[in-house]
Amino acid sequence: MAENRNDLMDKLVSLCKRRGFIFQSSEIYGGINGFWDYGPLGVELKRNVKEAWWTDIVRKRDDIVGLDCSIIMNPRVWEASGHVGGFNDPMVDCRETKKRYRADQILVGEARAERNGEVRSLGWLCVLDGEGAREEFDRRASKFAKKTGGGNVVPPEQMAVFVDAPPDVQTAAIGPDTDNAGTLTAPRQFNLMFGSHAGAMQDESSKVYLRPETAQGIFANWKNVLDTTRLKLPFGIAQIGKSFRNEINPRNYTFRSREFEQMELEFFCHPSEADKWYEYWRDARYQWYIRHGLTSSKLHLRPHDPDELAHYARACADVEYEFPFGTSELEGIANRTDFDLTQHQKYSGKDLAYFDEETKERFIPYVIEPSGGVDRATLAFLCEAYTEDQAPDEKGVMQTRIVMKLHPRLAPIKAAVFPLVKKDGMPEIARQIHEALRDDGLASFYDEKGAVGRRYRRQDEAGTPFCITVDGQTLQDQTVTLRDRDTLEQIRIAVDQVVNYVRQRVR
Ligand code: GAP
Hints:
Layout: H1 5-18, E1 22-24, E2 36-38, H2 40-59, E3 64-67, H3 76-81, H4 83-86, E4 88-93, E5 100-102, E6 106-115, E7 118-128, H5 133-147, E8 152-154, E9 159-161, H6 167-172, E10 188-191, E11 195-197, E12 207-209, H7 215-220, H8 222-228, E13 235-244, E14 259-269, H9 274-291, E15 299-303, E16 315-323, E17 326-335, H10 339-348, E18 354-356, E19 361-363, E20 366-373, H11 374-385, E21 386-392, E22 398-404, E23 415-419, H12 426-439, E24 444-446, H13 452-462, E25 466-470, H14 472-477, E26 479-484, E27 490-494, H15 498-505
Parallel strand pairs: 3-13, 23-24, 23-25
Antiparallel strand pairs: 1-2, 4-5, 4-10, 6-7, 6-8, 6-9, 11-12, 13-14, 14-20, 15-16, 16-17, 17-20, 18-19, 21-22, 25-26, 26-27
This protein binds glycyl-adenosine-5'-phosphate.
């Protein structure tokens, strides 16, 4: 196992680029901050994540239906949802470096040094929050101490998040990327929605937004779904799609991007049943990640403290994962009460109440929202999968093997098929197996080039759970070697059993 956390991230990023999981967007032009492309293996992995979610949430249930809404909607939607007025991050600019930071992601503390029994102030020093922030603070404080007469660095009495620091501290602070004091602006609110204009006019009347979440398309269509299906409460509406946020500090690879995909479910129910459904979805969603391979102790379910809750939410919990760069949210499950439908009813002037024919009760339903990020889930699956172990090469010499232990349901390629050599009819049989797998909807890869050991290694890096080799014995008894990616166990199985075997194992 790769032990150092940053080391693991570097190795993963390099593997993802080398093997075509993830590329920087517009890389040939130097890239663009906060945007990523998925390569040939990555796109399959990501599609499998979405497919698994859609199958489990929509296709396998009678009480949930899907939607695919437009990204650009009537801008009134975003006034009703509160995004125009309130979807802001406090941000700070550095006048010297022209860099921009999120004010809630900078820590500030008084740097002090002690010399001959005397403690003196070196100034208010800022560092970016996150792993290693304290070490960075001490390193910079010690540099300042040396520059101004030496002494031992004394730990700050306390460190505050910049946005909470008093204004005189903010204006006197030394920014995270400068040695000069007083270059930071006071925090200013910055709306995270990307704006554009629809139509030829470029004025306020044509102003539109790229959706910052898929959820609002569901609320805006709640009545349409109610009227066109015969669903009765409780029921859910699900959507997967792109969302856009002009994040001030996109970081940690694909974790915080400016363009990303969400998989969101809005589950509507009677207010008296909301607590029960909240618990149901919180637990079901946590289990879903475990079921798809996040089995380690790195997955957590964290209920929010009451003071963390959004004003409209009654309860919320995050499914969190210990990424190499820190523990962060994969998905949030919230009881949003009747907030969203009430807002849309108010702003649209349309009646969005539900009428229960049996009880003759008319009410706005409560909604439980499990809201996950496709890219974040994909990144967590990649982090968890990355493994280095020792395995013998063709000559029996032990070598470090990189293997992506992705859950078979998510693996981009389910099986690779090799002829041992390119003669004696082996390629023909191998191709037939490859095609039979593909005809069954199982992603298969055919490879006849190079030593078989090297072909195995390439598939290990791609996360392919099974490798099937046609060899001399196949010609005699119609069996092939089937090698398991994780156990390295090799079994012989009949050619006509291969498709069945793989189908069973990739569920
Ligand atoms: N409708 C509720 C909502 O959008 P959120 O916590 O803002 O809630 C839900 O977002 C999920 O979307 C997050 O848990 C995360 O997985 C994903 N997400 C949010 N912002 C993201 C970003 N900048 N980059 C990648 N994924 C993001």
